[in-house]
Design a protein that fits this description.
The complex is a heterodimer of chains A (251) and B (229). Chain A has four helices and twelve strands, in the order ββββββαβαββαβββα. In chain A, strand 4 and strand 5 form a beta hairpin. Chain A is globular, with a radius of gyration of 19 Å. The termini of chain A are far apart. With 229 residues, chain B is an alpha+beta fold. Chain B folds into three domains: 54 residues, RNA polymerase II/Efflux pump adaptor protein, barrel-sandwich hybrid domain (OB fold (Dihydrolipoamide Acetyltransferase, E2P)); 78 residues, Nucleic acid-binding proteins (OB fold (Dihydrolipoamide Acetyltransferase, E2P), Beta Barrel), CATH 2.40.50; 77 residues, K Homology domain, type 1 (Ribosomal Protein S8, Chain: A, domain 1, 2-Layer Sandwich). In chain B, 18% of the residues lie in helices and 35% in strands. In chain B, a hairpin with a 5-residue loop joins strand 10 and strand 11. Chain B is flat. The chains are: A alpha+beta (251), B alpha+beta (229). At the A-B interface, strand 5 and helix 4 of A face helix 1 of B.
Chain lengths: 251, 229
């Protein structure tokens, strides 16, 4: 470690700086339907990272020329609010946020039945309220729950997590110091039912075996995240269950 | 290997497995992937024999043929009207679908029948591949909704406002003396004495918000009698 401000050791006595085991995730809380004015919304807390997603649509496409007669136009916008990082983040789109918007969109698109909503737009807005590594994965978890909350037809939910290599050890769900001073980081997203991977990025150097090992860790964690997403959605709609109501007919 | 993974009235999320085997048939917001039947939206499962149906709990209104809807006129063209029907797609109403009368365009203004801003009760007659929606207000009871007030509710809550065999809406109408028309696209038109209109509008909002709670009918009854808040 030679970087400025880096702690001497990121792993002490076989434990991480925050006391987690190597394959342990940070605490995950998901809440669905937190924004009344959106068609669907969700808030995800992954350790110190908080992401809020709002989904609007399907609705008319703007600008009009982006509309596709065969399928919906999926629009994802990822933003970090100015107080999300220790140093003030300059508001507005940046190189990084444009890239993340793109990968989040590509991670979600395969899960949505876009062809069921021709000539429309589905807008997904994701705000990072607090950033502590793993913002794109929290963004995907939140966006998938928000899309389902909006009642948009989907093949599956999308779960996402990152794993990486720090001080020669393979770790799941890196937090801030590990992310900043670690050797490698691998964000990952998949559709838990079909096990199709929709996002795979890598930053740093890893061997072939290490990649295989990290993939395994990520997939295992995604199953857990999927369960949490399911619970969050069912919780929001649980109240609807008691009702014994038949579908009615309009006059 | 036929197997059902869910019970009737379970809540399911997109991608959740409902049943396995070609014996079962998907309906509503359920779809088939290979031999499996899966849910495509958040919804409630209804199992009737071999048919596994998912009734959605959220979502925008998507027009279906035969739906009775309330639209707002947004534009008058050369040969028809364009209406906003609270869905991602606009609806078109041709001049021939407006009334039984012959409209002589040389002598009459089209706005005499439906002007911009008017609300119209109409039926969806066709939906093309390209999602052009055609609606008609030619037959009874389809008409222009004069006066009154429009409120918007979630389209998935419409069956609750109507109630079993129209019991809820009948109560709303009878007890308030208001005329209430419910469109399947989530718009509700209320006309009556202004004070009563407000009461009915509030009652409908309560139905939308507390549709799951027990004793809803009694609560609405109380509201209409002027007892509760």
């Amino acid at each position: 470690m030679s970087k400025v401000g880096a702690p001497d050791k990121l792993i002490v006595n076989g434990k991480r700086l925050d006391g987690r085991k190597f394959d342990e995730m940070r605490e995950l809380t998901i809440k669905a339907g937190i924004i009344p004015n959106a068609d669907g919304s969700a808030q995800v807390d992954l350790g110190g990272t908080r992401a809020i997603a709002a989904v609007y649509g399907p609705r008319e496409v703007f600008p009009r020329h982006l509309s596709d007669p065969d399928k919906a136009y999926l629009n994802c916008i990822y933003t970090m609010v100015s107080f999300s990082t220790p140093d003030r983040a300059r508001p507005g789109p940046s190189r990084r946020s444009v890239e993340i918007s793109k990968v989040v969109k590509d991670a979600l698109a395969p899960a949505i039945f876009l062809e069921k909503y021709p000539k429309t737009a589905i807008d997904v807005y994701i705000e990072i309220i607090n950033a502590n590594a793993g913002t794109r994965t929290a963004a995907i978890i939140a966006a998938a729950v928000a899309l389902a909350d909006a009642g948009i037809e989907m093949r599956d939910l999308v779960s996402s997590i990152a794993a990486g290599k720090v001080d020669g050890e393979l770790l799941l769900d890196l937090f801030e110091p590990e992310d900043n001073f670690g050797d490698a980081d691998m964000p990952f997203a998949m559709m838990p039912r079909t096990k199709e991977i929709t996002l795979l990025q890598m930053d740093g150097e890893l061997t072939k075996d290490e990649i295989a090992e990290l993939l395994k860790m990520n997939m295992k964690a995604c199953e857990k995240i999927y369960e949490a997403q399911k619970v969050a959605l069912k919780e929001k709609f649980a109240t609807e269950k008691d009702l014994a109501q038949e579908e009615g007919e309009s006059q | 290997m036929e197997k059902l993974y869910v019970n009737d009235r379970d809540i399911v999320v997109p991608g959740e497995m409902l049943a396995d085997g070609i014996e079962y048939l998907p309906s509503g917001k359920a779809f088939r992937d290979g031999e499996k039947i899966l849910a495509s939206t958040i919804g409630i499962v209804s199992v009737k024999g071999r048919v596994v149906k998912v009734i959605p709990l959220a979502g925008r209104y998507m027009p279906k043929r035969g739906d009775v809807i309330i639209g707002k006129v947004t534009n008058i063209g050369h040969s028809g009207w364009t209406l906003d029907v609270n869905s991602p797609y606009n609806a078109d109403m041709n001049i021939g679908e407006a009334t039984h009368e012959y409209i002589d365009l040389a002598k009459t203004e089209m706005s005499k029948y439906f002007d911009i801003g008017d609300y119209v009760l109409a039926e969806v007659i066709t939906i093309s591949e390209a999602k052009f929606i055609k609606i008609s207000a030619k037959h009874r009871p389809y008409r222009r909704l004069n006066g009154g007030n429009i409120i918007q509710v979630s389209p998935t809550k419409i069956p609750r406002i109507i109630g079993k065999q129209g019991s809820m809406i009948k109560m709303l109408k009878d007890m308030s003396g208001c005329d209430v028309v419910v469109g399947q696209n989530g718009l509700v038109w209320i006309k009556g004495v202004p004070e009563k209109e407000v009461i009915v509008a509030n009652a409908i909002k309560v139905i939308e918000k507390e549709s799951h709670k027990k004793g809803l009918t009694d609560k609405i009854k109380q509201m209409l009698e002027g007892g509760a808040k």
